[in-house]
Amino acid sequence: MENSDFISFLDNYKGKKQFLQKEYLEFIKIVNHDYLSNSFGSPNFCAHYVPPDEDMYKKWQETHNVELKIDETQKEKKIISVNISSFDDLIKMIQDNEYDEQYNYNIDLKSLHIIKDDLVKLNNMIGMKRVKESVLDQLLYFLQGLHKGSRGDYKHTVIYGPPGTGKTEVAKIIGTMYSKVGILKNNVFKKVTRTDLIAGYLGQTAIKTKKVLDSCIGGVLFIDEVYALGSKSGNDDYSRECIDTICEALSDYKDDLMVIIAGYKEEIDERFFQVNGGLESRFIWKFNMDKYSADELFEIFKNIVVNCDWNIDETITTEWFKTKYEKFISLGRDMELLFTFSKICYSRRMYGNEGVVNKILTIQDIEKGFNIFNDNKNKDNNEISKYLLNSIYM
C-alpha cells in the first residue's frame, strides 16, 4: 500500500468525528488484496498489513481530530455478574473486573472505572448510610440512561440535614462523578448563598440570579442553607423574584443543569418550597443526612488529626466525646474547631521543651481546647477567626 493511497482514504473522513475500525480494515483488505480474518472465525478482524507509516496516521489524526473507534458490533460480548445492594458491592465489582476496550459489557464498566476514586471517597466518609444508598440508586439510574427521553426526569436534588454533616462534600462528589461520565456536560460546581443571588433593588435580583444559573449550565449549582432565600411570612418580594427565577430555570435547563439545595427539612419546606408551588415537584431526589453519633464524631476527629500529620494519645476515647456530645451542635465542623483549639493548648504546654515536639495531643490538650471551644460556640465565625489570629499560641 502506498502512502498516497492511505492518505486518500483518510481524507474521506475529514469533518467527521470518527470512523469505524471495520471500515479502516476493509480499506486495507481492498488495497492489499489480502484476506482478513483469524483462524478461529472471530468477528474481530486482524490485518496482515498495516499502514506503512504509523507516525503519518497519528499526525493526520491529530490534524483532523478524527477518532478511530472500534465498532461495538465487532466486540466480543462479556457478561459481568451483578448483585449490587451497597456501595461496598459496587466498588468490589469494579475492583474485580478490569475494563478492557476489546469487550462489549452488559454494564457501563468504563464509566464505573472512571469514577472509582470518587465512589471510594464517598464510601469512606464516616456515617451517611442512608445518603450512600440514595446516591447509589441515583447513580445506577443515570448510568443506564433511564432519566432520558421526550419527558426526561429532573436531576435536581435536596440534601436534608443539619450543619456539619458533609452536605457540601457529598454535593461536590456527585457533581464530579456525573461530569466525568457525561451525565453532566461540564465540570462546573458553584456553591452560593443568598447574597450571591439577591440584589439590592427589585428587578435586579432576577438578572443576578439568572447570571449565576447561566454560569452553571452543564454542571451543578449548590445552594446551601437554601431556606435563607425565603421567609416564613412569604412577603419578601426579593426572595420571591429569586425563587421564581430558579423555578423557571429548573424546567428550562432540566437536561443541562443539576441544582442541589441543602438545609434543615422543616425550614426548606416552610421557607423555600412554599414560596412557589411548582418547586418541590422539580426536586425528585431527596437525600437525608443522619446526625453523627458520638462514636462517629470521634472517628471524624481522629481523621482530621491524622490527615494533618498529628496524633492523639490513647487515653482519648469515644467516652470523652459522649460526655460532650450535646455541645457539638455543628458536628463535623465543630471537630475542626476542637482540633484547632487543642493545638493552641498543646503549643502552650510544649513551649520551651526543645526537641520534644511530637505533635501528640493529650487528654489535657483536648479538655483545655474544649473549654476554648465552649467559650466561643456562641460567637460568629468572624469573632472566632479574630480570636485565632490574635492568639500568641498559633
UniProtKB/TrEMBL annotation:
Start and end residues of each AAA+ ATPase domain: 153-273
Any Pfam family: AAA
Key word Thylakoid present: no
Molecular-function GO terms, alphabetical: ATP binding; ATP hydrolysis activity
Keyword Nucleotide-binding in annotation: yes
Keywords: ATP-binding, Nucleotide-binding
Signal sequence range: none
Family: Belongs to the CbxX/CfxQ family.
PANTHER family in alphabetical order: AAA-TYPE ATPASE FAMILY PROTEIN / ANKYRIN REPEAT FAMILY PROTEIN, AAA-TYPE ATPASE FAMILY PROTEIN _ ANKYRIN REPEAT FAMILY PROTEIN
Name of the protein described by the UniProt record: AAA+ ATPase domain-containing protein
Organism: viral metagenome
